[in-house]
């Protein structure tokens, strides 16, 4: 069974940093593109970033480009999202997702990030 | 990165059909067959119900169907059931190698 378990969320002040992790199991992690998607409270889904199988290709939404960094450790079956210079508008539940054909077939349960002073 | 356009709400009586539209541009919905639909209950994780415009993952009832014409994709829920009351989001691959979601549609079963 495919499992994705996010961790690392919490309360952080504006301008601060946080690193999210997503532990994968139940599939061959290194074979899949992985993504981060976020959802602000009461709002819709927003795609954040994606990374290819070996980590050599990454893409970011304009709203986080230059502040967030996606990476992966295939030996540890883990996806990461390093978030720097956090803003109030980054407050959201962050989901990691496994994709195929640019669709998110599997999602984690999400981790909540709150940016507030 | 502009989001895809969905109606904020849709409704139907049990047994009826409801169709949700998802309008983009030639650079996303109109340019690719990589349109997906997700169902999300309040406080729950999104679930993929349609991918590549009209394909259903295993386990998704055939009451859910997808289609596309030009820059607009559509999700139809036939034989509406109480359990179909949820939020539905479309997404598409884009020219910029991004992915983009619609704003979501709340489906109410009357």
Main β-sheet of chain A, in a few words? 7 strands, mixed
Number of helices of chain A: 0
Give the overall shape of chain B. globular
Low-confidence stretches of chain A: none
The total of beta strands of chain B comes to 9
Mean pLDDT of chain A: 97
Cα end-to-end separation of chain B: 35 Å
Percent of residues in β-strands of chain A: over 45%
Find the count of extended strands of chain A (DSSP E, 2+ residues): 11
Biggest pleated sheet of chain B: 6 strands, mixed
N-end to C-end Cα span of chain A: 40 Å
Low-confidence stretches of chain B: none
Helical residue percent of chain B? under 10%
Q: Rg of chain B to the nearest angstrom?
A: 13 Å
SSE order of chain A, one letter for each helix or strand: EEEEEEEEEEE
Portion in beta strands of chain B: 35-45%
Query: What kind of oligomer do you see?
Result: heterodimer
Explained architecture:
The complex is a heterodimer of chains A (117) and B (110). Chain A has 117 residues and is mostly beta strands. Chain A has strands at residues 3-7, 10-12, 18-25, 34-39, 45-51, 58-60, 68-73, 78-83, 92-100, 103-107, 111-115. In chain A, the strands form 2 sheets. In chain A, strands 2, 4, 5, 6, 9, 10 and 11 form a 7-stranded mixed β-sheet that branches. In chain A, strands 1-3-8-7 form a 4-stranded antiparallel β-sheet, with no helix packed on it. Chain A starts with a strand and ends with a strand. In chain B, a hairpin with a 5-residue loop joins strand 7 (86-93) and strand 8 (99-101). In chain B, strands 1, 3, 4, 7, 8 and 9 form a 6-stranded mixed β-sheet that branches. A 3-stranded antiparallel β-sheet of chain B has the order 2-6-5, with no helix packed on it. The chains are: A mainly beta (117), B mainly beta (110). Chain A binds chain B through residues 35, 37, 44-47, 50, 59, 61-63, 95, 100-105, 107-110, and chain B through 1, 3, 32, 34, 36, 38, 40, 45-48, 51-52, 57, 89, 91-93, 97-104.
